[in-house]
Design brief:
Blueprint (H helix, E strand, L loop, with lengths): L4 H14 L20 E11 L2 H12 L4 H15 L9 E8 L4 E7 L13 E2 L2 E2 L2 H5 L10 H12 L4 H4 L1 H9 L1 E2 L2 H9 L1 H4 L3 H7 L11 E2 L2 H13 L2 H4 L2 H11 L18 H6 L3 E3 L2 E5 L2 E5 L6 H12 L9 H22 L10 H4 L2 H8 L37 E7 L4 E7 L52 E4 L5 E6 L5 H14 L5 H6 L3 E2 L6 E3 L1 H4 L2 H10 L3 E3 L7 E5 L5 E5 L8 E6 L3
Parallel strand pairs: 16-17
Antiparallel strand pairs: 1-11, 1-19, 1-20, 2-3, 2-12, 3-8, 4-5, 6-7, 9-10, 10-13, 11-12, 13-14, 14-18, 15-16, 18-19
Helix pairs in contact: 2-3, 3-7, 7-11, 15-16, 15-18, 15-19, 16-22
Length: 597
């Protein structure tokens, strides 16, 4: 196997540590956290997430006879306990499912929606766009939650267990507690000022008025009760019931501490918005790559179209034989171009004419690939192309900001079903508003809309609208072989960097032939049609590699951490490999039901 020199040192220690590891999950127990292992190989199914307790919750469901969908919901619910600043029932996400019996891929768009009273000026005040910080920690930023509807839709379509059954592990973790780690404390500290604006949030996440101590046990009995209630009443409790009334009241009258001086703008959510919400069953995006079939989520997320377009641009470049410099150069330029097209064309297809088929056509990608030179760099912002008229270009516009948190999980079961699921409350800590007595944070997903047009001269498909879904970059992906059997499934958090993370992991694994755990661990670059490409420290501090890229014309900035991916890989004989981060976000957790046949 050829391994690029610049990556060798970064991944060699990982490979040595994890070769032939088979990590089975211990029985889940409250107040303790299983040791994290970034890779596991075995039988009976596999789960990978950022958190050991959440991964163990999914394994517990698989052990008891549940399938990949059941385990995915159980893992997601547990992440709502242990990763409450990234996910939870106050948010939304996108669910991609491979059905082994029919060998087909299906998806659910569980993105949050704007209130039915919203218009394009949702974040405009006195004729000017709100400052991002003012918009985030407010009821104005909160969209109708989609996660509960996603869980119920997935279970109803493809699961084998009731919602109440798969919520049990998460309910137990919330009641008995989990061990606070460095990541949880650091994320709390980063949000401490915002959390103190809202007494219910401060009471929950700053116990005794202090930051949680590493090694202490963090309990959330309010969330345990909420999960128990959801299990009994179903998600109708959110969309038509008492829990929904609490959400609406909290959004429209944010429970802010008057002494904080914070102006928490009221939202516009109504009972009608909750009752009208639906998680959408829709066809996936499909892209051919190296004789494989790459499936992901279609708009309202831009993930499937943007990763797919970039792969199509790279299709005619032999990345396996390219030098490290040329590999990164072509990967960066393909990302730059596809982000230009994303910004111009992708929005909620219920409101916008999104040319998904054109964006994913090889003919269009071949035309866009002509922009790439081996010895020169495109100047950002690159102008978008026109999928309806390949060869023509539009007006360049900068890429708008998107929060960089979220969480991702991947699951496979003994029958061969696979789930790749990314869920979020947007940025770390969401809106910072906790629903009183309910134990969970509300999202700030509506700040993913453009506050005003990215380019006033061109239609922006991502402006707010009544019931509209804001554009996302979430990119849960499943790759199949020619016989429509799974090869690999991956995904990542990270806002707009999700797209580049998934693209890079796929090319490292499929083209550069790194083991999956090494492809996930490899140092990352992220170009999003900006003047500078972000590099993680291992690349930024590589003076020789960086110098050669700068000689071509690249400019760089340092980003300490990009994404936090997980994945599963199908191996022969009913065996699965689960892989997670080795270092990012404190390292992830990969587990299998049984390391032995």
């Amino acid at each position: 196997m050829r391994r690029p020199v610049a990556r060798k040192l970064a991944v060699l220690a990982v490979s040595a540590a994890v070769v032939s590891v088979g990590a089975a999950a211990p029985p889940a127990s409250g107040g303790t956290t299983a040791a994290k292992t970034p890779v596991a190989v075995g039988y009976g199914g596999a789960v990978a997430s950022v958190d050991a307790d959440a991964t163990a919750a999914g394994i517990e469901v698989l052990r008891k006879g549940g399938n990949a969908v059941d385990a995915a919901v159980a893992t997601a619910a547990a992440l709502g306990v242990t990763e409450p600043y990234s996910s939870g029932i106050g948010g939304g996400g996108y669910f991609v499912y491979y059905d082994a019996k029919s060998r087909t891929v299906h998806t659910i768009d569980g993105r949050e929606t704007a209130p039915l009273t919203a218009d394009s000026n949702l974040f405009v005040e006195n004729g000017r766009p709100l400052a991002f910080a003012d918009a985030v920690s407010s009821g104005l930023s909160v969209g109708t939650p989609g996660t509960p509807a996603t869980w119920q839709t997935a279970l109803g379509q493809w699961g084998t267990e009731r919602l109440g059954t798969v919520l049990k592990p998460a309910e137990r973790i919330a009641r008995n507690g989990f061990v606070v780690d460095d990541t949880f404390r650091t994320q709390t500290a980063a949000n401490e000022t915002r959390f103190r604006y809202f007494p219910d949030t401060a009471k929950l996440f700053l116990p005794g008025g202090q930051l949680p101590v590493v090694g202490s046990t963090f309990k959330n009995p309010e969330l345990a009760r909420t999960y128990k209630e959801l299990g009994k009443k179903g998600v109708a409790d959110i969309y038509q019931g008492d829990l929904g009334k609490d959400i609406v009241s909290t959004v429209n009258n944010p429970p802010v501490d008057p002494a904080s001086g914070w102006k928490a703008r009221a939202g516009k959510l109504s009972a009608k918005d909750l009752a009208a919400y639906r998680a959408k069953l829709q066809a996936p995006t499909e892209t051919g790559y190296r004789g494989l079939k790459v499936y992901s989520i279609a708009p309202s997320s831009s993930g499937g179209t943007t990763v797919g377009e970039a792969l199509n641009i790279l299709e005619n470049t032999d990345l396996s034989q390219a030098s490290e410099v040329q590999y990164l150069h072509h990967y960066i330029e393909a990302s730059r171009i596809s982000f230009a097209d994303r910004g111009r064309w992708v929005g909620d297809p219920a409101f916008e004419d999104v040319p998904t088929k054109g964006l994913l056509s090889q003919r269009y990608a071949d035309e866009r690939a002509k922009l790439i030179s081996d010895d020169a760099v495109l100047t950002s912002p690159v102008a978008p192309g026109d999928p309806n008229n390949p060869g023509s270009t539009g007006t360049a516009a900068p890429t708008t900001y998107e929060g960089e948190n979220t969480t991702h999980l991947t699951v496979a079961d003994k029958w061969g079903n696979v789930v790749s699921y990314t869920l979020t409350i947007e940025q770390t800590g969401g809106s910072a508003i906790t629903v009183p007595g309910r134990g969970f944070l509300l999202n700030n997903e509506l700040t993913d809309f453009s506050f005003t047009p990215a380019n006033p001269a061109v239609h922006d498909p991502n402006l707010p609208g009544p019931g509209k879904r804001p554009r996302s970059s979430i990119s849960p992906t499943i790759v199949l072989d020619k016989a429509n059997r799974p090869v690999v499934a991956v995904g990542s958090p990270g806002g707009a960097t999700i797209i580049t993370t998934v693209l890079q992991v796929l090319t490292e694994f499929l083209d550069r032939h790194l083991p999956l755990v090494d492809a996930i661990a490899a140092p990352r670059a992220s170009q999003r049609n900006a003047a500078k490409t972000e590099l993680e420290p291992a690349l930024y501090n590589d003076a020789d590699l960086r110098g050669k890229l700068e000689a071509i014309g690249h400019s760089f900035s340092l980003n300490p951490e990009i994404g936090a991916a997980t994945g599963v890989q199908r191996l022969p004989g009913g065996k699965w490999l689960a892989a997670a981060e080795t270092v990012r976000r404190g390292g992830g957790s990969a587990q299998v039901v049984d390391p032995a046949p």
